[in-house]
């Protein structure tokens, strides 16, 4: 993990990855309104620049659900990213473009790269010049454990996803960061990353849940610091979501 440190005139942007599907046993069963409220409280408290969303099942929550006015949601059927438009510009990569690139370069692995589970956006983190994008951001939801895939198969799928994301990043000339519910233990991702010398998985200490399946993976050229579980103050919020939201700070060059 690149822990790095702040240098003079270097700023950070706060990022969060959050599976906001409602609770499963032994956690409290929540409904959509409860999940939205938990996310709203999280955003108001942490003021992230960018949230990577999985299992949102919502459309345009930034407009509908009392988020601070500077937040916009980017969605294709349901929300995939929530971002602060005073900090960032974000342009979703069309699913048709993803499919075309996938079928041209990764046809034999097409079933691994279903567009309903992987969503990509080019992000300008400084808003210097319109469309001057500097990071490829990816929200990824790995295959469910209940699908009968053992950990070795899920590791194989992750390896394909990482190759695919790296290839898309190279197409646009951008480093990448993936925030997601990988449905694969972080230790398994660390094993997969042994096959790549230009990317890393960002570790953190688990407290509430024994499994760590939500995390960030990025190009090594990006530095992410202070990665941790979002420290909830109330037990109700902890129990509504059956995943831990993960927060970190991404160091910017300017």
List keywords for this structure.
single chain, 254 residues, alpha+beta, 6-stranded mixed β-sheet, 6 helices, 28% strand
Side by side, the strands of the main sheet go 3-4-2-1-12-11
The overall pLDDT average reads 85
Radius of gyration of CA atoms, rounded to a whole number:
17 Å
- Return the string of H and E elements: EHEHEEEHEEHEHEEEHE
Uncertain ranges: 24-29
Decide which structural class fits the backbone.
alpha+beta
Question: CA-to-CA gap between the ends?
Answer: 22 Å
Major sheet, described briefly?
Answer: 6 strands, mixed
Number of helical stretches of at least 4 residues: 6
Name the overall outline: globular
Kindly state the percentage of residues in helix. 25-40%
Strand content: 25-35%
Instruction: Say how many strands there are.
Output: 12
Provide an overview of this structure.
The chain has 254 residues and is an alpha+beta fold. Helices cover 26% and strands 28% of the residues. It has helices at 32-46, 61-64, 95-105, 151-172, 186-193, 235-240, and strands at 12-19, 50-54, 71-75, 79-84, 89-92, 118-124, 135-141, 176-181, 199-202, 214-219, 224-229, 246-251. The strands form two sheets. Strands 3-4-2-1-12-11 form a six-stranded mixed sheet. The chain has a six-stranded mixed sheet with strand order 5-6-7-8-10-9, covered by helices on one side. β1 (12-19), α1 (32-46) and β2 (50-54) form a beta-alpha-beta unit. The relative contact order is 0.19. Residues 24-29 have low confidence and may be disordered.
């Amino acid at each position: 993990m690149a822990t790095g440190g702040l240098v003079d005139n270097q700023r950070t942007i706060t990022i969060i990855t959050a599976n906001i599907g409602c609770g499963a046993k032994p956690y409290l069963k929540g409904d959509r309104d409860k999940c939205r409220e938990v996310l709203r409280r999280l955003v108001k408290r942490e003021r992230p620049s960018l949230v990577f969303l999985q299992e949102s099942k919502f459309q345009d929550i930034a407009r509908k659900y009392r988020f601070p006015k500077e937040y916009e949601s980017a969605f294709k059927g349901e929300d995939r990213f929530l971002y602060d438009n005073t900090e960032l510009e974000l342009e979703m990569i069309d699913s048709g473009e993803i499919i075309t690139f996938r079928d041209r370069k990764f046809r034999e692995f097409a079933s691994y790269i279903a567009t309903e589970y992987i969503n990509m956006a080019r992000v300008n983190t400084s808003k210097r010049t319109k469309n001057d994008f500097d990071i490829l951001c990816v929200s990824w939801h790995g295959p469910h454990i209940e699908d009968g895939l053992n950990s070795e198969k899920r590791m194989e799928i992750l390896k394909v996803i990482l190759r695919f994301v790296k290839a898309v990043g190279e197409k646009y000339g951008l480093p990448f960061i993936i925030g997601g519910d990988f449905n694969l233990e972080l230790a398994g991702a660390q094993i997969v990353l042994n096959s790549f010398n230009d990317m890393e998985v960002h570790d953190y200490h688990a407290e509430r849940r024994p499994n760590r399946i939500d995390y960030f993976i990025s190009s090594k050229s990006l530095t992410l610091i202070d990665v941790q579980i979002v420290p909830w103050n109330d037990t109700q919020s902890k129990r509504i979501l059956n995943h831990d939201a993960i927060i970190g700070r991404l160091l910017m060059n300017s």
